[in-house]
Prior knowledge:
Layout: E1 5-8, H1 13-30, E2 34-38, H2 43-48, E3 66-70, H3 80-102, E4 106-113, E5 122-130, H4 136-144, H5 153-159, E6 170-176, H6 179-186, E7 195-196, H7 198-211, E8 216-222, H8 232-239, E9 242-244, H9 256-263, E10 268-270, H10 273-283, E11 290-293, E12 295-297, E13 300-301, E14 312-314, E15 320-321, H11 324-329, H12 333-336, H13 343-365, H14 370-375, H15 379-387, E16 389-391, E17 396-398, H16 405-418, E18 422-426, H17 432-440, E19 446-450, H18 461-472, E20 480-483, H19 487-493, E21 498-503, H20 509-522, E22 523-532, H21 537-549, E23 554-556, E24 564-569
Parallel strand pairs: 1-2, 1-5, 2-3, 4-5, 6-8, 6-10, 8-9, 10-11, 11-14, 18-19, 18-21, 19-20, 21-22
Antiparallel strand pairs: 7-15, 12-13, 16-17, 22-24, 23-24
Amino acid sequence: MDKDIIIFPNGDFANKLISLMGAIDLQLRTKKKIELIYSYTFNDLIFDNNKTDFMDELPELNFTNVSYKYEKKNLKIESYILSNLLISEHLTEFSEKVSKNEKLNIKKFGIEYNQYPIIDSGIIKNTWIQGFQNKGAPLVKKWLQDITKFKYYKTFMNEVGFDWYDESFEYVVIYLEIADLMIWINNNTLMNKFILKPEWYDKALKILKSKTNKPLKIIFYNNLRLNSNLLYKYLEVFKKYGIIINDLSKNVKSLQIEKLLIMSKVDHYIGPRHFIQIPSYLYSKNHSITIINSHNTINYPYRKQDYPSNWIILDDTYNRIETNRDLQRYNLDILVGLRSTNYDELLMIDKKSIKITKNSIKSRYDSFYKNFNKSIKSKILKDLLLFRNFEYKNQIYHLNSNISINEGLFLFYLIKKYNPKKLLEIGLACGISASFMLVSMDKKAKLTSVDPFQKYQWDSFGLNVVSEIIKENKLTKNNHKWEPLYSHRFFSKKNNNYDLCFIDGDHSYKGTMIDLEGCHNLLKKDGLLVIDDVLHGPVKKALHDFLLKYNGIYKKIDYNLKTMSGYIKLK
Length: 571
């Protein structure tokens, strides 16, 4: 065996360099032979696009018993997201093959502060170093300090150079990681990462401006494959503090090696991830100000002691874009739709990203489903709530509207205790509340779901979920009926008495009052009235006024739940 330890780093140029720092440090601590096997992933695909291998453009690597090589998989696919997923699969297969051939065990440590864990031999995979407190960091800094020794330096000076630098200004490079995060947030498969809001950059630039005397010129980098001028909410913030000097329409056409050389000249650094941290660590000056955000992922904060003492770690807790609603607020959901990716590639992206995230989600939330597992045996319903995705006839739905597990268990409790035979639901949506009721009720009972928007707003999401729940639980089509009507029209036509009415429809005051009054007229004596989202302002007020009007007719069911209420109709 030629090498004792093999490391498979993930990520762009900055991750390659920080993994090299970690490998050198590990070699000095273990005296083992270490090889880094780099891949062509993430920003490598966006910026370099097979034009160059970043590591090959640096000075000659000459660290004792530390070497590297590339393992590539060339794919003729437009989508870099799909390319990255396919390359990740290839690297998994490749590392398993190396493990078998070299008789080396694969070890996965996740995020580690400053250093790789000590091992005698093996393959280190899915492990990321966070911080610079190791013996390798200053050695790599010394190795890269003289940029004239870069193999790419001559080409850089001919094609880019430093003529743009004017000493009457101070220069700040700002980085925004957005492209892959935006897509994964949009399809609900990303659970622990986020995009920084424009407000975070506003706070950072305000701090920088207060500490500098010269006017600012800004170089704005991001990994969006579209024209960066579309990020206008961010640009509005930046332009308050300085002049943006790089051509945003050509953002992704600049190689990573060029970006690093440009960042070696600037004065200040703002942004997330190693993309900002590595250039600042290597090239910051005495007057430089570096501002990074406070968390790598939601669960892993950056620690002050792991970074240069003059760096500012600015809290990001309230400045994270991590939901579809956040994307919409900052108009980033529009950019998701502008991707030039065909339907088949989009479908494959969804399938593969879901597969990758399922195991980590499952291990993280299994304990949360303890009460669910005791009561409900539906795998379809659990998987839908757990992974928030539903595959049906070559289509993938993303769950973005549903009652919670505890609310569903409240419905389960009521149905099991009172055994209603005729159930009415106002608002089918994604079919989660209907599923809870179907798996809880007697096989001779019938649920009617009223929802006029199911076909064109929800794309039959709820109906398809209900169809699969019926099959899984050996129910029949007679157990469920869909009424494609507005609730007021349904109430005007129906006079059947129901044993349970569940309201989760129009959340306006008027709409909620229509549903409450309609259900009141249809509900039998001793029937159950259940309403969701009772903390929502208009719903709360409508419920309050309804109960005042029918004082003494409804008795609240005692249950430790704040967001949903249940009542028994006494007469």
